[in-house]
Amino acid sequence: MSEDDVFRKWFEQRRIEDVEAFVPDMAGAARGKVLPAEKFGVGTMKMPEAVFGQTVSGDYVDNKNNVEDRDMLLVPDASTLRPVPWARDPAASVFLDCYRRDGSTVATSPRAVLRTVLAKYAEHGWTPVVAPEVEFYLLSPHSDPNEEAEPPEGRLGWTDGARQPYSIDQMNDFDPFINRVYEYCEAQGIHVDALSQEAGPAQFEINFLHGNAIELADQVFLFKRTIREAAIEHEMHATFLAKPMEGEAGSALHIHQSVIDKDGRNIFSDDNGNPSELFRGFLGGLQKYVPDAMLIFAPYVNSYKRFLNPWDSPVNLAWAVDNRTVGLRVPDSAPEARRIENRLAGSDVNPYLALAATLACGYLGMVEGLQPTEITEGSAYGKEFGLHRHILSAISGLGASAALRGILGDEFVTLYCAMKDAEYMEFQEIITPWEREILMFNV
Fold first, then answer.
1. Which tens digits make up the pLDDT trace of 351-378?
2. 118-390 CATH, one of 3.40.50.2300, 3.50.50.60, 3.30.590.10, 3.40.630.30
3. If we measure between CA atoms, which residue out of 145, 108, 153, 193 comes closest to residue 412?
4. Which fold has domain 3-106?
């Protein structure tokens, strides 16, 4: 059966009327086209390659590798076909892979960046296994960006502003929303596990079942769309901003990661069940290269505000076993499940790029034979900061990293840094309420 036949049969069986065909852009948003199912596969789909040079505000940056503003050829990935459960008419979604006319992959596509890193692992017979954990806030709906974000009303119209981590009662306040999220996730094959109340008011975390990195990045991407749609359906907003409320906990995207060999054995454990040299190398790579990759884990000006509350977000690259104060946590587990949790990324990241960056850092550590620091005992919150405090220094750090350019791709790093520099300059033009209130008449 040809691929066109696969699509046609899939659409017919489900009586699909419309197809959302998209690529994830640098911000992790869907860019693409919506077309009738009967038109899908007719002719060649194209889209400007410049979508990967589009800032989060919709502006474009110059790309010396695309001065022609050329089209890219879009090839649908049949393995990613899913229903769109919130659509009024039967609809499907599908991811598109991006190619140039000569058949080469568009190197600035986030999905392609992750595949490039995975190919490095494959050369050694290794396959990464990942399990993200994503935090988000539900917000009361309003359309004025000058208003402070507030949690939505729960049962009986009550708005709870207290911090109630792991509260079952607070989750019950939003039971209809939560049930809808699970329903939509099941329909799309998004393999989520437990949902829990987090530190902030109406802040939640969802855990994903472990698996292939590309598939998990796709699932996180779709999950964000799902959460927003389910929230709107229940007259709320949902946000993945790293720091949406003053004085409250930030939202993270924690990444559990391990590596298996061709026989399915976890290479982080040796034959005796002890931590292996490759495990130590992966840790050492994270400690050495995560600072250079921080722009990917904290991609916006707001991202760095998440690190202001040390009780909530790790601020250094210390590591320890079963210790949430460190940036690199090793959960207490059996040898076959030994893994490393990177706790530094915010929930505002592009999931493809965040997975690519953390796996790239670990890979470099393994192939370079690096060693981690000594294990941390007790709390790491009082230790040296260890991260970029500001996006401008993070831009410089990634741009100057020959090692990360070598594994993530020089073209990608150059364009990504240019975009982040443009976004930062746009932010710098804004006069904030603090400047008007505190500085205006006191300087």
1. 999 999 999 999 999 999 999 999 998 8
2. 3.30.590.10
3. 108
4. Ubiquitin-like (UB roll) (3.10.20)
